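Exercise 7 asks you to align residues with tokens for two separate proteins.
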Amino acid sequence: MGELCVIRGIRGATTVEKDTEMEVIAAVEQLMAEIIRVNEIDPDMVASVFFSATDEIRSVFPAKALRKFEGWTYVPVTCMQEIPVSNSLPSCIRVMIHVNTTKSQKEIQHVYQAGAVVLRPDLTNKI
């Protein structure tokens, strides 16, 4: 009998210095490349991807960066605005990937880059 395949959430976040299309796309590409690499994600196993951004991010949909990755054309992706909580991390882009995998929750590698490492320092040093 094979391993049980279940859907897992993979989290990640990054920040940008300036809200420009070039900077947002570059930051999201870097974040997604690392999440895909460390979790060995096959896009055919991905159910959906949700991006959220703080209200300072208005130049481009972060999801646009994902379309540059081969094999991700048909993966459902959406963007939304992050809840504007007082004193929250500004200029932040977050991602939640829902992937079918045989990995346990503990084996999932969440990735936090740039200024977003402060969000989950307990997970950042796991890799």
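Second protein for Exercise 7:
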Amino acid sequence: MKRDSRLSGILHVLLHMAERDGPVTSEELAGIMRTNPVVIRRVMAGLRAQGYVRSEKGHGGGWTLARDLSTVTLRDVYEGIGSPSLFAIGNRSEAPGCAVEQAVNAALDSSLREAETLLLASFGEVTLQRLSADFHRRLEERRAARPCGEVHEH
């Protein structure tokens, strides 16, 4: 099963945006993420609806952050992109009347709900500011290790 990397991708985009002084176009962000600008616009629209980003049309327009990094959590972004499924595993539903399937599904449902609750609580504790600080720490470590040359690689 293919992994859903939208959350990771949009967090990456938001951190790049935080490093810019002005608007960033969908085309620029798509280049960073090696995707289509339409994909960027679609995902960013959900974040705009939640008030996390703004968009300006026309020459010099693009996407900008609408809130301070310290006020936006991973959970906010997760919900802003539509709360995709957190887990790739799930229940069988081929024989809903089967007592074995019912027992297995009940156990899995319970465990998955508990895990989701813990994961979402953890997401709620991590701000974009914390991610940005970690990025800058890593960047400084790379600079110290390699004083010459490019340090932010894709």
